[in-house]
């Protein structure tokens, strides 16, 4: 057996081990959603988002057309489908 040398920066071997801080959707969430839904989706002026119970298609529909709580819709020119997917993936890390 060959001993492994200590790495300078720890790495994760599994995607599930990624922390919320490493998720690309965190920045977009913070810039676009957190002012109403609170940090990490814990609620604020708007309803809580965690645990996140919607699938991507449902979230995309709500984001594009607005929510029943009075949330405005966001056109793709303001928030791309890829950014919505990243936000969904980020919020699911808190489940």
Record the SSE blueprint.
Elements: H1 25-32, H2 34-37, H3 56-65, H4 81-92
Would you write up a description of this structure?
This protein has helices spanning 25-32, 34-37, 56-65, 81-92. The protein is mostly helical and 95 residues long. It has a single domain (23-92), classed as Cytochrome Bc1 Complex, Chain D, domain 2, CATH 1.10.760.10. The relative contact order is 0.20.
Could you give a short description of this structure?
With 95 residues, the protein is mainly α. It is 36% helix and 0% strand.
What is the CATH class designation? Answer: Mainly Alpha
Uncertain segments of ≥5 residues (pLDDT<50)? 1-17
Rg from alpha-carbon coordinates: 16 Å
Mean pLDDT reading: 82
Reported by name, the CATH topology is: Cytochrome Bc1 Complex, Chain D, domain 2
User: What amount of the residues lies in strands?
Assistant: under 5%
| Beginning-to-end CA distance, first to last residue | 39 Å
Number of strands: 0
Number of helices: 4
Indicate the percent of residues in helices: 25-40%
Give, in order, the helices and strands. Answer: HHHH
Oligomer: single chain
CATH superfamily heading: Cytochrome c-like domain
Largest sheet: none
Helix-and-strand structural type: mainly alpha
User: Any idea how many domains?
Assistant: 1
Q: What is the annotated CATH architecture?
A: Orthogonal Bundle
Shape: globular
